[in-house]
Amino acid sequence: MTLQDPEIITHAAQATAVVRGSVGADEIAAFYDSAYSAVVQALGRQGVAPAGAALGYYLSIPTERFELEAGFPTAAPIADDGDVLASELPGGEVAHAVHAGGFESLGDSWGALMQWVGEQGRTADGRMWEVYVTEPSPETDPATLRTELYLLLTG
């Protein structure tokens, strides 16, 4: 199993700088590349450093097309800058776990986390995000990649 250490934690709301888009599954990689570049440039213009690793925030459970934000956490809200928007990861109770391995098996880890949430008698809100702890590169061994998974819970 590629899912490690599922737990329910309280997550504090976190300011982010993101690009938001309606994306199909086959467009995710290109969207991320474009969004991260735009956000880094906007943060540079504003003299703001990212406050953590790159993230992807799914505003609903992914289907054929879905709303997605890609960017970085910031210490405080930024000024909107073209396609780059000030946004926020929500606060509240979340199911959190770590996905170990490449992105091709990420869906399996999400499925396992959602099943685990049900086994805890909890319900997911539908909003979820990934934090890319290990920055991928062409030389990276996929087995060494780590992605934190967060699934917002209701009630």
List the helices and strands and how they pair.
Layout: E1 3-11, E2 14-24, H1 28-46, E3 55-58, E4 65-73, E5 84-89, E6 92-100, H2 106-119, E7 124-132, E8 146-153
Antiparallel strand pairs: 1-6, 2-4, 2-5, 3-4, 3-7, 6-8, 7-8
In short:
By secondary structure, the protein is an alpha+beta fold.
The tally of structural domains comes to 1
Proportion of β residues? Answer: 35-45%
Categorize the overall geometry. Answer: globular
Could you tell me the CATH topology label: Multidrug-efflux Transporter 1 Regulator Bmrr, Chain A
Structural class category? alpha+beta
Helical segment tally? 2
Strand order of the largest sheet: 1-6-8-7-3-4-2-5
Low-confidence stretches: none
Q: Can you tell me the CATH architecture?
A: Alpha-Beta Barrel
User: Strand count, sense and closure of the main sheet?
Assistant: 8 strands, antiparallel
Which value, in Å, is the CA radius of gyration?
15 Å
User: What name goes with the CATH superfamily?
Assistant: Regulatory factor, effector binding domain
- Please provide the ordered H/E string of secondary-structure elements: EEHEEEEHEE
Between the first and last Cα atoms, what is the distance in angstroms? 29 Å
CATH top level label: Alpha Beta
Number of beta-strand segments: 8
Q: Helical residue percent? A: 10-25%
Mean pLDDT across every amino acid position: 92
Pfam families: GyrI-like
Protein name: GyrI-like domain-containing protein
Organism: Ornithinimicrobium ciconiae
Domain AraC effector-binding: 4-154
